[in-house]
Amino acid sequence: MSETRLKIGITQGDTNGIGWEVILKTFADQRMAELCTPVIYGSPIAAEYYRSTIEELENIQFNICQSAREAKRGRVNLVACGGENLKVEPGKLSQEAGKAAVEALVKATEELKAGEIDAVVTAPIDKESVQSESFRYTGHTEFFAAALGGEPMMIMCSDRLRVGLVTIHIPVSEVSAAISREKIVARLRQLHESLVQDFGIVAPRIAVLALNPHAGDGGLLGVEEQETIKPAIVEAYENGILAFGPFAADGLFANGGYMKYDAVLAMYHDQGLTPFKTLSPDGVNFTASLSHVRTSPDHGVAYDIAGQDKADPQSMRNAVYAAIDIVGRRRAWQEWTSNPLQRFERDKGRDVNVKDLPQTEPEE
């Protein structure tokens, strides 16, 4: 472990939200710095403000540095960025706090791409305050899609449940038009690959949710199930993905049917996240299908309790755990599959008959 300890970047998020509180509470436990080398990207002003307001955090000592290259193992490292002359106002939406959040996020992403850190964990941002001419994204997921390239998939995960989404941050009125057979098949493929490579599940089973109440009731309440979702499930199944459904969302979660599957694919944001957050209040948001690992706690900025020492750090702590685990599994998978036997060698080995093997006399 000492030779392979990962550097995990943590972005400060909105400096007026609960981001700094859950970060500091997470790394107040010195054992966290034994699991990884934490590199926090954020404002020293904000760090000092929140450290001084919570008694149990006063003993945290930062190693202030300019880059993760200077990070020290066994220490809580702080890359100074995001708010040089910051005014911290807990619970208040402000453009200054949004700008500080973006600056920290951009710095961490640059170092992630450069290989200076192994994964990034993002504290929550306010989607309104971060908007500017240079930042026009509806969330972290869309930002990382642009920064890292590719088509990301949002997966909410916990020890109890994993939920993937077909559509992410779009209005509910646009969901029906946004789903198609091709998109659902692609999402099933992404979810399957992530379950295998990132979560270590050999043959994952995926439950697919319907779009309409009662799974459309045979077309009485909508035709998406018959015309789009079911054909997509059949196509994915025929291509080796163990997908089942479509299931009515209320029934699958209410009667515990989701526990029979390794993951659930939801058609839209609230359809998946409402039951997930109810069943797993300390879950993690994982951005799958990208070249680098990004996780985050499953909560928002929580302005209503910011600066009051009420924020629970467990979801942030779990996000750090998840980042460490996923990087490890992904690297192991890449190593295992980097030099596979060529097809004809596998086939030849499978077809060998005992009578065709060279016969030798047994030793006396």
Characterise this structure:
By secondary structure, this protein is an alpha/beta fold. It is 37% helix and 16% strand. It is built from twelve helices and twelve strands. It has helices spanning 19-27, 32-35, 44-53, 95-113, 140-148, 175-178, 181-197, 224-238, 249-254, 269-279, 314-336, 343-351; strands at 7-11, 37-42, 62-65, 76-80, 119-122, 153-157, 162-165, 205-209, 242-247, 263-266, 284-288, 293-297. A twelve-stranded mixed β-sheet has the order 3-4-2-1-5-12-11-6-7-10-8-9, with helices on both faces. β11 (284-288) and β12 (293-297) form a beta hairpin. α7 (181-197) crosses α8 (224-238). The longest helix has 23 residues, at 314-336.
Key descriptive features of the protein:
364 residues, alpha/beta, globular, disordered C terminus
Brief rundown of the structure:
The chain has 364 residues and is of the alpha/beta class. It is built from twelve helices and twelve strands.
Output the radius of gyration: 23 Å
Instruction: Output the helix-strand order.
Output: EHHEHEEHEHEEHHEHEHEHEEHH
- The share of residues in helices is 25-40%
Structural class label: alpha/beta
Count of strand segments: 12
Query: How large is the share of residues in beta strands?
Result: 15-25%
Shape by Cα distribution: globular
Number of helices: 12
- Overall pLDDT, averaged? 91
Largest beta sheet, briefly? 12 strands, mixed
- Are there runs of 5+ residues with pLDDT below 50, and where? 357-364
CA(first)-CA(last) distance: 50 Å
Which strand order spans the largest sheet, edge to edge or round the barrel? 3-4-2-1-5-12-11-6-7-10-8-9
